[in-house]
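Quick question: what would this complex look like in 3D?
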Amino acid sequence: MKAKFKPVFNMSLLGFYFYAYAKVVFLFHRQGGKKMKHKKSVQIGFLIPFMIPLILFWVIPLIRSLYISLTDWDYISPTYNFVGLENYSYMITDPDFFKVMQNTFVFAFGTIGLTIVLGLMFALVFQKNFTGGRIYQLIIFSPWITPTVAVALVWSWIYEPDRGFLNYVLGWFGIEPLKWLHSSETAMFGIIIFTVWKSIGWTMLFYLGALEKVSKGAYEAATIDGANWIKQFLHITLPLISPTTYFLFIINLISSIQVYDQIQIMTQGGPGGSTTTLLYMYYQKAFQNFQMGPANAVAMIILVIIMLLSLLSSFLSRRYVQYE
Amino acid sequence: MKKDKKIKLVKHCFLIPSSILFAFPFLWMVFGIFKTNNEIWQTPYQLLPGAWDTGRVLDSLQNIQFGRYIFNSFYVGFVGTIVMLIASTLFTYAIVFMGNRYMQWLFYLVLAIYMLPGAVTYVPVYVILANIGLVDSLTGLMFSYVASVFAVFYLRQSFKKMSKDYVEAARIDGANHWKILRHVIFPLNKSAFYTVFVLTFVQQYNNYMWPSILLKDQNKYLISQGLRQFFIQDGAYGMNWSEVMLASTVTIIPVIIIFILGQRWFVTGIMEDSGLK
């Protein structure tokens, strides 16, 4: 925790990095032509450029996070006390924390459900190539690659309660204007719509790849047997693309439990804490209030939730997912 | 034949409104550059601006001064991604082609980390970077992204799919590891390399949370952070909407160009690998 070594120059680490890399290149040349046996030094040379940052920025920090979560460290003072599980027990009794958990899960499952269903729907539309298909795909995909900050502004105009575009459109259908991001009841819904808009294209691409691999023979056989398209979809397509669904579920789950950008930009966790999610809470505690102990306790809880959900879904996948 | 045409028509009828829905925020943004504040808020809405005053837009372009941010984002996107790719390629090559028991364990370590949320380590990573003097520096930002678990995962999938015979054959012919990487591994896994490159580039270019924790000097801001700064500097979302729209558009254009240039590799790359577990 305390070990502090003052660096002499800033670039030294990257410099060392490239030095190590040059060393590896040099070893290649001496190694060339020899038989299958791999020299230890070569192996290590190959691994080092990746292993150093892996240990420095993943392995050590994970252990340290756990340790910090058991202390009352405030980042500024050099000393801290070991408080055991106090940060955790405080959190469990805090009603705000449960609100945050609830927000996170509402966001995660709302986004994942909508994204997967709509993504699959679009992929089915694109299943058979047709003229212009590629252009539609590009348009649907483009929100995914654009920075959240850049599109958030237009969305804040769309969501504007008085003169915003969405209420204007709703007016056509005789729907009363909503306050969207300005009301604690609808703010999370607004964030979910934005996130779904942004991530459908990505999900769609994965499904398109999966659909392409479903063999044509299976469909032909089903057509001969007189199965209509609903039956074909339920009994052929859906089971055969289930590994992709599983993969997308896990990936989307991990990323939506870590949602931050749109919340920080569009609502700052408000109104009334209605869009504060776990990672936003972590950010507030760690980098605004400098309560490193409680912040890292939140981090550990995020970690445990993701691990549990991955285990659960890999258990479910063994039962329900069909691999060819 | 007739039925096919009908289905196509239905598809277009469905896709045209959906595309408008997806593209609308972008269109509004681009046309917004030419509008005055009143035009933006007037109802009923007008998609097209009243006048195409390019002179004023060029003036605003000088005003917003986004060059620095764009440069920083590109610098981190290119240099950071290339260093990351080199490290991950060497690592993946070692795991796949120099395989022994220990290598397998290393891969399990990477796999375990792949499932974990990176954000939970921000506090200790910040402390570690502070200890080695790399806080508030683009080098530190890039360095913290060198160990890309995603890249290893993805490249390994691709390396495993190609036949090991090529590597063996090259080795028998006397090729060293360097030559094998350059002349066998790279050409055979081009699509995977491009996919990882474009994905990581886009991710780095758009990156927001970690850079805004790490970088405090405004000259080092990445584009997202810079844009955010630009929005809030004149109070609640600024006064001049057309400048804000211009800044947003300027931010988006480079990433769209990169994407269109790389999409042939990138889109097929994702589609090919979507069967992965």
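Answer marked as accepted. The two ends of chain B are 38 Å apart (CA to CA).
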